[in-house]
Amino acid sequence: MSEATGPIRVAQWTSGIVGASAIRAILDDPRLQLVAVYSHSPQKRGVDAGVLAGRDPVGVTATDDIEAILAAEPDCVVYMPHWPDIAELERLLRSGVNVVTTARLVNGQYYPDDAGARLSAAAQEGAATLVGTGMNPMHVPTVALAATAMCRHVSRISVTESMDCFLYGNAATWSGYGFGGPPDTEAIKTTLLATEPDYAEAVSSMARAIGVEIDGIDLNVECAVALTDRDLGFLQIPAGSVAGIDATWTATRAGTPVADLRTTWTLGTILGHRQEPEWKLANGYLVSITGDPNVRLKLSFAPADFESFDIGTTTAMPAVNAIPGVVSAPPGVFTPLDLPLVTGRAAGR
User: Fold this and answer.
1) Which of 32, 48, 95, 38 is closest to 69 using CA atoms?
2) Taking Cα atoms as reference points, which of 79, 35, 103, 131 lies closest to residue 325?
3) Other C-beta atoms within 10 Å of 123: how many?
4) Could you tell me which of 304, 60, 30, 14 has the C-alpha nearest to residue 163?
5) N or C: fewer beta carbons within 10 Å in the chain?
6) Where are the domains of the chain?
7) Three-state SS at 33
8) Paired strand residues for 129
9) CA distances, 209 to each of 67, 120, 190, 296, 322 (Å)
10) Which residues are within 8 A (CB) of 180 and not within 5 positions of it... i.e. 6 or more apart?
11) CA distance 82 to 226
């Protein structure tokens, strides 16, 4: 928690697809002041943040030194690597810096080495706040849970992310999940369990929000294979290799499913490439609430084919818009469910 007077001082951690969207949003928000940018890339070191975000220079240059970030005295760090470094987060929190992150982390409870307890201790020591968010998890599950307010009771809540991810052209991410490799579902499941504990954290939080303490989380994985070789520019996917992954995390109580998070991802179907089996994609998010009454929602983005859509925006903005709530929250590790309602801002406000 910070006692910020005037604009909230913000440091942006990373400047890739999502990070650049965050930089633009921070620069455009009169509540916020960009004071530092962290970049892992030697090529970006010393480059102006405005240039990294496709804008004119703003007088803030990127660094790869955490001490330089701390010296800028940010009230909040917007932490956006693809995967978190728990030691980095501990360092920031112990220094009294609030953190909002999209880095595959909700609360750290399903990360190894007691990460959740370590982060909580660091937050208390530094009187700082950590909030894990992003589009999915954790913003879409938050929207889904808000929809349960219409229900007399809820027995199951499900969220599905269903889309072709071609526009997120990060080869390391997709090959790391198994795209372009053999369709070994057990190997992919092992990878997802190791690299995506945030989905387990999210379904656990969803269940807890509707009053259920779970006793298990299951992960089911299915694959689709490319029918022909495909060159995506950033990744080669040979015929017969993985071109789609359908993964579902299910939280259970006494063997009964109470919350699900499903990701149905393909690479290249938007370009007309075929796979087996063929999956009908929603190009967005589907929410299904089983209760009294049942509720169905679809979140989609114009244009429906994502052709001119800035895919970084919907991941970055739940974090950027949460900054005021994060800096005013008490010390600790929280989810968006613990904050006041996070909303966007009217243009120019």
Assistant:
1) 38
2) 131
3) 26
4) 304
5) C
6) 8-135+312-334, 152-292
7) strand
8) 332
9) 38, 20, 28, 18, 19
10) 174, 235, 236, 237, 238, 241, 242
11) 26
Q: Is the pTM of this model over 0.85?
A: yes
Q: Report domain 8-135+312-334's class.
A: alpha beta
Q: Give the C-alpha separation, 39 to 290, whole Å.
A: 44
- What pLDDT digit, counting tens, does each position of 180-225 carry? 999 999 999 999 999 999 999 999 999 999 999 999 999 999 999 9
266: β partners: 164, 244
Query: For residue 247, what are its two tokens?
Result: 């993964």
Tokens linked to 18: 């999502």
Ordered DSSP codes for 230-299: EE-SS-EE-TTSEEEEEEEEEEEETTEEEEEEEEEEESSGGGT--EES-----SEEEEEEEEES-EEEEE
User: What are the backbone angles phi and psi of residue 204, rounded to the nearest 5°?
Assistant: -65, -45
- What per-residue confidence (pLDDT) applies to 2? 60
Is residue 84 reached through a cis peptide bond, with omega within 30 degrees of 0 on the bond before it? Answer: no
Amino acid in the structure at residue 70: L
- Digit-coded pLDDT (tens) for 63-80: 999 999 999 999 999 999
